[in-house]
Design a protein that fits this description.
The chain contains 6 helices and 11 strands. By secondary structure, it is α/β, with parallel strands linked by helices.
């Protein structure tokens, strides 16, 4: 868990992004955070269709050829986060915390559990009772997996993060065995509530719940350049 007291957290809403652009930005911010040139940050985005394979991926969980994915306009990347294969795309909120765990016990296991709690608290905002499953990372409601979590750390600065299905077209998940799991279906907030949900409000709830759980005072920044231009080194 985080230490007592509130620290500054800058939220940056990236809008809709290509995965590679957000991935490159994260790695840039990790370096800047390690050099104490920026404070802790939370990136919020919605990706164009992409499938990513983490360090624990098994290629047999990719059910479509790379050529067919390209024809469907779906990017494919092997990345350094933990976990297996997953999909990101329209209707899904993704958060990428760039935070320093050096003063938070360097406990990656607890960090993962805290990210799950952020998702659970957000679903509770919508009246959904959600939880976790033993031995699996992520968040479930009504035995449907609504959120995937996969992280990486560099010198105890975090990157990658969590994705919550809001209005996501669940047909995309038929292209993979999501996170290598076949015994539980994938769901979304809208599929369980039987109604489309305001994705911007979900993104706001996620950011607020993240700040609350990690004891941050959150401030919205227009861009990373705004932070670099206006803030002294921390």
């Amino acid at each position: 868990m985080c230490s007592r007291g509130h620290k500054k957290l800058f939220k940056i809403n990236l809008g809709t992004t290509r995965y590679k652009d957000a991935w490159d930005l994260q790695k840039r911010l990790v370096t800047l955070r390690h050099e104490s040139k920026i404070p802790d940050c939370l990136l919020v985005t919605e990706h164009r269709p992409v499938i990513t394979l983490g360090r624990g991926s098994h290629i047999e969980n990719l059910l479509e050829s790379k050529e067919n994915l390209a024809q469907k306009g779906i990017d494919l990347f092997e990345v350094e986060r933990g976990g297996d294969i997953t999909f990101h795309g329209p209707g899904q909120v993704v958060i990428y915390p760039i935070i320093d765990l050096n003063n938070r016990g360097r406990d990656l296991h607890q960090y993962l559990r805290d990210l799950e709690k952020v998702i659970i608290n957000t679903l509770d905002n919508y009246g959904l009772k959600a939880g976790t499953k033993d031995g699996l990372t992520g968040v479930w409601a009504a035995d449907h997996k609504l959120a995937a979590i996969g992280v990486a750390v560099s010198r105890w600065i975090t990157y990658h993060g969590a994705a919550l299905n809001v209005n996501t077209d669940l047909n995309y998940f038929k292209l993979i065995n999501p996170c290598g799991i076949t015994e539980y279906p994938v769901g979304s907030l809208s599929s369980l509530l039987k109604n489309e949900v305001d994705i911007n409000k979900v993104a706001s709830h996620l950011a607020e719940n993240f700040a609350d759980l990690f004891y941050y005072e959150m401030e919205t920044a227009a861009s990373i350049e705004t932070i670099l231009d206006e803030l002294p080194a921390v």
